[in-house]
Amino acid sequence: MDNLSGKVALVTGAGGMRGVGRATALELAREGADIVISDVKRAAADLPPQELKAGWRSLESVQAEVQALGRRCHVVWCDLSAAAQVPQLIEQAISHFGAIDILVNNARAIIGRDKVPVTELDEAVWRRFLDINLTAVFLATKFAGRAMIRRGQGGAIVNIGSENSKRAYPCTAAYTASKFAMIGLTQAAALDLAPHRITVNAVCPGMLDTDRMSYWEQDQARQQGVTQEEFRARVVADAAKAIPLGRIGESEDVARAVAFLAGGKSGFITGQAINVNGGTLFH
Question: Which of 7, 115, 166, 179 is catalytic?
């Protein structure tokens, strides 16, 4: 891995205890970057049971971990479904550290309410997925990209996609559409920003063993009379059986791919959507 000393990285959706955002912030900090972390303030009903039990403090807990690694860390609370807050996020990051060298668009809408056939999908749910998973990525790329161009020292933008960026599953119209579109945005932005030595890539994980909140899992657990943790464990165990490498992915697997794309050794890679899935999908 490259040493990212002197670089500043902004990671969205970084407040989850076992999420990709937290793992990425820590990985980039280990590589020497100073970190800006962002997330939305979530109500208790939108928190995974594990975080509630652990007394997890979202961004504040991640900030303490980054600082324990000897790196500076700035917290910005931001609701990415509110478009006006996205340029403010970029401005606050630059105001605090003076620059953004690396942008990781990781935040996504909480899944579950979209898990219905397209004929039953509520338009408000559809719009929320597009707002958070796509429009916020566009706006963050736009304003961070402008700042990188003005600074004239290049940069790296990494978008967190999904296997759903490349193939659909039943009852995922909103999520899949937003993640497919993210890849198109990644490719177009890569071409637009290439003259400025700014790379734009995507990492597309398969299923991960995280504690991320899912309204669908919450509902299924309630219907089956088990805890959400028990239902999630079943989902993880079943998924692992279908993965050629024999295990489900971890957030750290994704974070390491992001760190590679953020560093100088990947400077000739742009516009790509790289799978991190244990061999479940090859294109």
Answer: 179
DSSP label at residue 263: S
Catalytic residue among 115, 166, 175, 215: 175
For residue 81, give the nearest of 124, 145, 37, 21 by alpha carbon: 124
215 flagged as catalytic: no
* Structural domain spans, the chain: 8-276
Q: How far is CA 63 from CA 97, 123, 224, 251, 283, in A?
A: 15, 36, 37, 17, 36
CATH number for region 8-276: 3.40.50.720
> Pick from 4, 41, 43, 44: which is nearest to 25 by CA?
4
Question: Measured between alpha carbons, how far is 92 from 97 in angstroms, rounded to an integer?
Answer: 9
Profile the chain (283 residues) by mean pLDDT over runs of 10 residues. Answer: 87 95 98 97 82 92 98 98 98 98 94 92 97 98 98 98 96 97 98 98 92 70 84 81 92 97 96 97 92
Known catalytic residue at 179: yes
- Reported pTM: 0.93
- What pLDDT is stored for residue 50 in this prediction? 84
